[in-house]
């Protein structure tokens, strides 16, 4: 909260004979002139020009009214209580706040004013909290001979007895200083106010996105939330697992998981990344210039991407090199994404133990050797480009990558916004003009099956865990599941739904290509769910996650459509 | 604000309120006739105005969540709740444009009373609008003459007629989530609507630009204003060419260009008298009018949206009306007419919609309001026709490019052109307008038809200009070739750009590299494919083209099969650029200094120092100020010669090292636990804007990008950005003086008494580093650069300090001498902010030559090169 944004608070009452009056104002002199010594020399604006908005017609009462005058924004909540005990059966008041006109996030003040207005209404209705105080006031005014304003104000405005005045004062001070306040009114009533900053609504969360916490929620004393899903999901958020993978690991419902993640996004605890894989392509955005020029961020980066130091001697580096190159080789072979980072993570743990044993004697020279040079970072980042897969890039820069965690290197760039993932999209050229994007039946069944698949592969996951699971990336086990379960295809859309789909397609389709796409029934069942992703709106990460299929297979299928280049892959 | 927000006017209604002596405050006209209730507009009613407290999902203006909804078929209706909550801040974002967003809103609300307004077409009110809508309309609000926006008309009238304190001020009244934005105009004390004194004021270029009429401003006569209400209050001008001066607005004195105009004084008197005569003896009936635009902006975009609307539309429109009022009581006459029609219709119990059709057909004022609403609420340009002699245009300007690619958490604007070429780097730099090409966003003939509406010499001229605009030639070249004055050309260009008809781009060239834009809007692909196919029937299809361009980036000419295809392919490229499908990949570079160079420079400086020292020693014996020098020395960089401290090369590094040495232990502990890099609010947002930042950050009222909001509370615009440049001690680079004066750098270091025989610095004591900005290099950096420049002389032989890993020494036809001569020119652009592609035009060199020079330097390993848009 910007400090001291509230410039003034004032309480206005409408009197059936004397019109609207400012009864209390803090600081004094801010709304109407005051003779008190501490008063502002000049009111913030001309009160008479805005009375119609402070005490509006019935229509506009009990609504939040804001208006700008003289570069101030006045936020009021006029309240009109209709009851027989008041003269003319009406009691109209407004408890308003003045802030700067250009205050960006003024919505939270609106909420405070609204709450205050309602509370005061309640208090007045219960026990005449407001009207009680006025007993002497108006008569006093009469005695003063309808004295225009000043006298009576100073008469009771400062006179410490007024609870409402004290309320004004406390609200102003507390909200400005602490952004919240708690004011006991009487035995049974307390006013609690807090300024909540307005946050932008969270974007939709997709199953293939990878959440990464920006604050350490685990270090909090109490559980973050009573949300069971959230609590189950949290341990698996590590910047590597995609959301669908997290749902599998935590055994939670995918849509609930997404919603839990969305909450975290809303409160700014998370950033969303893409699925890291060595087959992916990353390139620089225009903000790379900022990275190159900013030394602090390079320091931060060096610290973040560095593999923890080995202090067991000079052969540390060779070990490190060896592991790095072996990972990339490993990468080539299996194409299983981001296993390298796991690899290095496990390396970390082993290294860590040895560090403890080692005496901290040669720290200085050692640390120098392990410090990653700024120009190395610059060179590494600037050499990432479109059309170059990470795998090949690693091979090109093996010598520079010693002691650097590639995944963290990429992730850092993504988070800071100077790298972007070049996603692959698939387009079926002729199909998407003729085929309805996604017939509802197929959508539903495939969605259903995808959850079924999740369960299914969950089982597989559990079975596999002992073997090699832990060191594999999110996609790998899915592939495993795919491979190990021949029954997998049983969960594909039922024959009924595909047949209901087929006639439409073939009827509209004059291109003979369609038959050749999917030669066998088996193939067709695997291929059809793919079709709805071929409109260029779905990246391969998404397709793979939804279909539980390795990227290679998907790409093969896309490129194979029609055999004559009907399926195209676009990278952007 | 870094990221532009998607255009979304959030406009829901336009009201015209007048206050007159006879009728009092009166809501004269509102459009659309059937408006949503204010409560519905402010979203779900009370508690969830800003959607983050307990949500009443019922009337949730669910929107913006299409992706979410469509992608999860399994989601239950709880999602809808989130959806409604979501709609607030970024409501206008995602792939939905303003229109569809509103439409969605409407249909969701299911408020059949007012969902038919689109069918009312003010142009030809007779057709359509028959079957479907009428039934609905009969039922409810269509006969509700007494309420507007859910408010009683009389209450609203009172609220919208502020006191005179608001004269020419922004009138902004918020009721719950909706806001009434108006620009009240009051009659003067003397009963006039304009100042009797006319003042001449030269129109600024910007004003000219914002004047919708292209034809007028091109005509040679540099017309000045015929009128001006007051210095700061200048309405849009009437047309010049076929212009019949209205009474009282003949060109004033001193306005020589139109000879027939009477001399000043009489005309003035006459005009005043005449305008007075039409009014009721200096005491006009209407005392004020207020055009009010009703918006419901999301909370976080509030300030920006309201300001945009007020500055660009509300205020200008009100001024135009005031101008018309001053001329012949336009507003009041029209108002009376509208009130009259309404009164009669009400008595006959006619429906609102049919009456509105009648009003719009009768009254140009009503029609202008209708047009205004229909266009502005769809984020289009409103062409307003006030009367026979006066029409003009209004719009809320939109961003036409952005250098920032939004991440998953930020408002998306697919289709927006992604480039840094529009970013103004330094104020002092000459603008590139003349060197840019103009990419027309519409077909030439359509454009000509639109622009040169009225026939005449100018229209023909404009047609001529526009037909000659091609995106592969810079404006300068076009104007030279066709003998068009460069100023005219530039004016046309800026006009077309301002009115969204064209974009300034770097001239398209087959030698440049283009990639598929990461920000391309693929949701429009289904529509684009047939359009493309129609345009280029015999060439590869759009997806194919995109697929081709999306591989490894290559110069565009590689995709052109034969020379005959060249033009066609360039047309395709222009088409792709127009739709934001592709963007140019531009090259940026920094100088990279090798340890060898640093060692050489260090050795040189040591030598100089020794000489200097011996000189001094000879001249005067060592004096007592030695200690002072010494302490000074530690600040200066020359201390890097003393044996122990070789490791640092710049003061910054020194700082870092010390700091991090201390923090070492901590780091170690942290490393395993840190899951992510520090993302503090300030770095996240501030850093983003570091190097290049659109100069047109008009809206400081950014909807906070609270995406990564840890310290979301204080979010200054960009704290770190300013800091970046101030970190280093800047000193003018001695580069311009070139090798002749090496003394500059050495001045820095006085004596170094503590080094009797320093060991010769060797390359391994230094590290590679990057010179961020040669223009602002420190003295040491300048010396390095200088040294690098010197290596060119000996060509490929001699020292050639081994570039790290490049294939050495291959220099195509560029001699070292050649390089040396152009070195200073080239060097200026090696700061990572100027694209190498622009060097040729900026420096007036041949493109090819720049390329060879650049490659020569690059091949010698001196550059850090990066390519982005």
Automatic annotation (TrEMBL), chain A:
Record's compositionally biased regions (Low complexity): 334-349, 469-485
Tree of life domain: Eukaryota
A Gene Ontology biological process term: negative regulation of TORC1 signaling
Residue segments, region Disordered: 321-368, 433-452, 469-503
Residue ranges the record marks as coiled coil: none
Gene Ontology terms: cellular component: GATOR1 complex; vacuolar membrane
Gene Ontology MF terms in the entry: GTPase activator activity
One Pfam family per UniProt: NPR2
Annotated Basic and acidic residues bias: 359-368
PANTHER family listed in its UniProt record: GATOR COMPLEX PROTEIN NPRL2, NITROGEN PERMEASE REGULATOR 2/TUMOR SUPPRESSOR CANDIDATE 4
UniProt similarity note: Belongs to the NPR2 family.
Name of the protein in its database record: Nitrogen permease regulator 2
UniProtKB/TrEMBL annotation, chain B:
Record GO biological process: cellular response to amino acid starvation; meiotic cell cycle; negative regulation of TORC1 signaling; positive regulation of autophagy; TORC1 signaling
Biased composition (Basic residues): 194-203
Residue span(s) of domain GATOR1 complex protein NPRL3 C-terminal HTH: 817-859
Biased composition range(s): Basic and acidic residues: 134-144, 204-214, 231-240, 655-671
Bias (Acidic residues): 120-130, 221-230
Pfam families linked to this entry: HTH_NPRL3, NPR3
Membrane topology annotation: Peripheral membrane protein
Subcellular location field: Vacuole membrane
Keywords: Meiosis, Signal
Compositionally biased region (Low complexity): 55-71, 256-267
Biased composition (Pro residues): 753-762
Region (Disordered): 40-144, 194-282, 642-768
InterPro entries, per the entry: HTH_NPRL3, Npr3
Extent of Polar residues compositional bias: 273-282, 672-685, 697-717
CC annotations in GO: GATOR1 complex; vacuolar membrane
Similarity comment: family membership: Belongs to the NPR3 family.
Its job: Mediates inactivation of the TORC1 complex in response to amino acid starvation. Required for meiotic nuclear division.
Protein name per the record: Nitrogen permease regulator 3
Species name: Setomelanomma holmii
